[in-house]
Amino acid sequence: MTDGAETHPAAGAGLSAVRMFAAGGPLGFGTGFLHHAGDRAVCVRLLREAFDAGVTYYDTARLYGEGACETMLAEAFAGKRSEVFLATKVGILPPQWTLGARISAKAAHIMRKAPPLRAVVAEPEDRHPVFGVFDRPRMQASFEASLKALKTDHVDLLLLHECTLEDVQRDEVQHFLGQMVRDGKAKAWGVAPTPEAMLGIAHSGVAYGEVAQFDGAIRSGFPPEGAPSPALIITHSCLGEGFREMAARLQQDEVLKARWSAALGLDAGDPGVVAQAFLARAMQQNPGGIVLFSTTRDDRLRRNLEAASWLDMPDRMAALPGILPG
Description:
The chain is α/β, with parallel strands linked by helices. The protein has two domains: 267 residues, Alpha-Beta Barrel (TIM Barrel); 31 residues, no CATH class. The chain has 14 helices and eight strands.
């Protein structure tokens, strides 16, 4: 992604950079499931379509697709590095595979497709990500691998992936993050913990950078009373389990569907409308912030991005708290 005109951001430039890109739009593209979209060309096309539609904020991590999602971002935005905001993370490593283990697993997978061999060929070993990787050497190695995969010399935001209060408090972690900003390898840093850990970090008063990224379910209670608000709040998962349950209910409950349809002036039997309502509510609850969404289909990409237009429809936005409280 380095295009020759790229310059290192100065230390302390993080706040202005974060606010500048937050002003680029309320929706950001999360790449956690991007690698499930199909072949690589499909994934890259989705990213470019999002960019062409005005999305400038892209969230990724070394974990996602075992590094593949970072390389897809590099391919999608080659020559456009200065036009996009890239956020990646340290703290969780992809499953550790040796070359021999990969070859064995692939061979076993192929052989087990033949019924006679299923009884004699064992299932490939299930390998898991490595969590809680917050020692300096492995954070450094992980981050350098991300920069290489992204084909850039810096990211706009470096987040601590599923960190705890204890992780954030460690001098080793604080020194590493501060050094990455001073070296120009990250414009800003922040945290991306579980909801419980986020509330604990905010209550503690410990410095956690300029950005807090967390499940939108706790947005109404964040920041806790008396705790300072970060420069940028990013929420995610608004199209998770709650959305899926509501979309299913609206297919079965005619009274509920009629109430939703009347409130929104739209057909609530359309799952795309329901997704837009959840996204619009998340944006309503996080004014001035970023709401992450993810999709593996271009038709859903277009429908999701249309949710931003709801912000200019006062009557529709006023109806949202009545049908989607909390």
